[in-house]
Every structure is written in structure tokens, then in C-alpha cells.
Amino acid sequence: MTEQAIDKRRIAESFGRAATTYDQAAAFQRTVGGNLLARLSADYCPVAIADLGCGTGYFTRALHRHYGRPVMGIDLAEGMLQFARDASPDCGPWVTADAEALPLRAGSQDLIFSSLALQWCAHLQRALNEAYRTLRPGGCLAFNTLVEGSLDELRQAWQQVDGFVHVNRFMSETALRELLADAGFAQYRCEIEQHLLHYGQLSELTRELKALGAHNVNPGRPGGLTGRARLRALTEAYEHFRDNKGLPATYQVAQILLIKGPA
Predict the structure, then answer these.
(1) In sequence order, what are the beta bridge partners of 188?
(2) Which 3 state secondary structure label does DSSP give 185?
(3) Helices 152-159, 228-239: crossing angle, 10 deg rounding
(4) 130 Cβ contact list (under 8 Å, min separation 6)
(5) Could you tell me how far CA 70 lies from the centroid of its own chain?
(6) Domain-wise residue ranges, the chain
(7) CB neighbours of 55 closer than 8 A, spacing ≥ 6?
(8) First to last CA, the chain
(9) For range 79-87, the mean pLDDT
(10) pLDDT band at 216, cuts 50/70/90?
(11) How far is CA 250 from CA 65, 110, 156, in A?
(12) What average pLDDT does this structure show over 109-118?
């Protein structure tokens, strides 16, 4: 099995285990997903809608309420889909699938919505190609993703402790914009939002990341359990970032709309 396949299995298992704790820890995710939904035109009326990387179905349900249409939920993690299916009786169907290989007919979707899911793709270009293929002419891919600079405080703190990769690497804004410009869509818009969250203790941030299933899946990650001495060193290193609101955690979020041109 390739390293890419191993990582995707790890991602699916990690998020599947987090299904029952995700919504309680996902205030930030709901905010940025809501900001993405608000960017869609008020007079836009899609018929065939897919929520790609739907997780627990929070935005699957929000899209259903917003447009009054059935919404397909797609996710790599079967545990998330089972939770979403139980919590969302008016939505569906629910499809276990990889964003880089969608089991959807070409030209079958009006809107593909994806909030904080595509940063887990090893090859974002493939996911964009698949979205383009499955959208109808005039269809929209609305997605957001984390870019370089996200969780930078945590990354810097770990760099003072050891040489391992403890924080997921995110694409630079420059590389993302180049990818979007070359993706074949007739129009695209990309806006960067910065979100600065604060925590009383480092353990609050790490517990939240665990509850969300957002574990480190990059090559170079440490194997085995993190020792107490390293955790103490990490806590001391992170304390240097403390301000009058607490310990900061920065997220850089790209909010993106892509419109497919006419046939």
C-alpha cells in the first residue's frame, strides 16, 4: 500500500472515531462553513447539490434548509456518514467516496459545497478536476481550505522541542491561487480569512484537535506516544505566545467559489 493510501486510511479512521465528539468541538468549523455558504448568491437556485466531506452532516442539513432540496452527503469516513445518516433523516443519499475519485456522473451536479475537507487531499488538483467533471455548465464548486500559516504557533512550539512533523502542512496561498487559475473554471474568487482563537491552556487546543479528528497525517510524523517530557517542553514553548486573551491559535482560511463555464 502506498504512503498516500495509508494516509487516506488514517484520515478516514481518525475522523470516523471523532464522529460523536466532532460537533461539540466544531464552533470554528461552523463559523467558516457559514461564511462560505453566505458567499453564494442569494438568487442562486441549484437543484442537484452535494456536500463533499460532509462529516456529521451539519452543512448537509444547512444546505437542505437553505435551498429546500435533497442534498447528497459524501465523505471518506464511514463513521462520519453513519452519524450523519442518523442525524439527518431528510438528507441523503450518503456516499462513501474520495474527493479525488467521485462516483458521480459527469455533468450531474449544480452545486458542490465542501467546508474544511479538501485540505486532506494529497492532490488538490485531482479533486478540482473531479468537481469540474461532475458539475453541470454554470455549476459552482464552493469550498474552503486551510492555507499556510494555520496553527503556526503550534508548529513553531514543536520546532523548539524536536525535529518531527507534528502539525499538518498546508498549501501556500500563492500555490493555491496558481492551482485555481489553472483548474479550467470560467470564474473563480478566492478570499483569505484570518481567524485567531484563544485557549486558556495548551491542553484545551490539543483536546479540541483530537475531538475533531484532525490528527497529524504527514510523512515525518513521530511514531508512538508523545512522552511527558516532550509535552512539558511543548507547553513551555507555547507559553511564549500567550497574550492578554490567552494562548493564540491562528487559522488562515481560503474561501473559494469556482464557476464552470457554458458547454
Answers:
(1) 258
(2) coil
(3) 120
(4) 99, 100, 101, 102
(5) 22
(6) 3-149+170-196+252-259
(7) 15, 19, 22, 75, 77, 80, 84, 117
(8) 39
(9) 90
(10) very low
(11) 31, 33, 12
(12) 96
Nearest CA-CA partner of 86 in 185, 20, 3, 5: 20
Total residue length of the chain? 263
pLDDT at residue 240 tops 60: yes
Higher pLDDT, 46 or 14: 46
Beta strands in 54-186 (DSSP E): 71-75, 94-96, 109-115, 135-146
Are the CB atoms for 112 and 141 separated by under 8 Å?
yes
What is the C-alpha to C-alpha distance for residues 234 and 30, in angstroms, rounded to an integer?
A: 28
Which residues lie below 8 Å from residue 65, measured CB to CB, with a gap of 6+?
A: none
CA torsion sign for 153, 171, 194, 37 is: negative
What residue type is assigned to position 216 of the chain? Answer: N
Q: Distance between CA atoms of 185 and 163, rounded to whole angstroms?
A: 40
CATH of 3-149+170-196+252-259, one of 1.10.260.40, 3.40.630.30, 3.40.50.150, 1.10.10.10: 3.40.50.150
